[in-house]
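Subject: design request, 279 residues
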């Protein structure tokens, strides 16, 4: 059982337990209503058994909340579609995942994003991308199809020059100092980053060290057309489309945006990082 799938199954179980307790039912009482052995209630609530569509329908009805049935069905679908193992995604190498991203970016009009530790793929140089892809392949112990993956990542950047697109990207200043490759490679990457400021399709903001913050900078996230949020952890990619959750990430982005520097001010922050590399 993959860890990411298990986490999602446990989250569904917690929701089922919540419905039962809100209905003032013991596990034994619910089991009798459903015609199940008591052990099944425990297994479902603790994520040791995967519910079926029929199980969820019966559970909602037995708890007196049939209106919750659709939500539970969405959660069940999300076990596999919304929580995806990075290792499983990379089983055939990085290039296939990069090609998938190319298609996703072509279909998206507006992106709001925040990154805290890395220069986004949209703005990467081939050398910087190559370094990161090799590191990830070694970390995940997956096939090294580095050159094909680099080419696909560069194709993704074609979207930067398509009319009608808008990429509103925020970077924590720390990403400008994360020397994950040779200094000369990173210097070229910072030059490239400075160069995207002023593109019609790009609004690049840098959240500098010492800026007053209305929210602490946490993990990176990408909001696609205000409909989908993508979050990458070390081992998992989350794809979040619940409207209230998408709105939550939108509010977080707004607060980071308030602390960001744009235009000449952003150039100065990048230049400061660039000077430290050259020193």
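Subject: RE: design request

Done. Sequence follows.
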């Amino acid at each position: 059982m993959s860890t990411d799938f298990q986490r999602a199954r446990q989250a569904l179980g917690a929701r089922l337990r919540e419905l039962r307790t809100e209905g003032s039912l013991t596990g034994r009482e619910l089991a009798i209503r459903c015609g199940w052995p008591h052990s099944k209630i425990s297994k479902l609530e603790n994520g040791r058994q995967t519910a079926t569509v029929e199980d969820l329908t019966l559970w909602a009805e037995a708890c007196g909340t049939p209106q919750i049935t659709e939500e539970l069905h969405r959660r069940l679908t999300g076990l596999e579609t919304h929580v995806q193992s990075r290792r499983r995604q990379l089983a055939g190498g990085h290039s296939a995942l990069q090609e998938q991203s190319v298609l996703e970016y072509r279909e998206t009009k507006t992106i709001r994003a925040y990154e805290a530790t890395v220069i986004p793929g949209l703005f990467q140089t081939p050398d910087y991308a190559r370094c990161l892809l090799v590191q990830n392949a070694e970390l995940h112990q997956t096939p090294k199809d580095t050159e094909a993956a680099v080419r696909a990542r560069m194709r993704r950047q074609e979207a930067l020059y398509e009319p009608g697109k808008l990429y509103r990207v925020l970077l924590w200043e720390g990403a400008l100092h994360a020397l994950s490759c040779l200094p000369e490679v990173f210097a070229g990457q910072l030059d490239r980053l400075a160069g995207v400021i002023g593109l019609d399709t790009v609004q690049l903001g840098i959240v500098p060290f010492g800026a007053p913050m209305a929210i602490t900078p946490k993990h990176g996230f990408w909001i696609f057309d205000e409909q989908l949020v993508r979050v990458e952890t070390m081992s998992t990619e989350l794809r979040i489309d619940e409207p209230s959750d998408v709105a939550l990430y939108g509010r977080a982005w707004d607060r980071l945006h308030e602390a960001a520097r744009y235009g000449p001010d952003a150039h100065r922050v990048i230049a400061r990082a660039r000077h430290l590399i050259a020193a």
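The radius of gyration is 22 Å.
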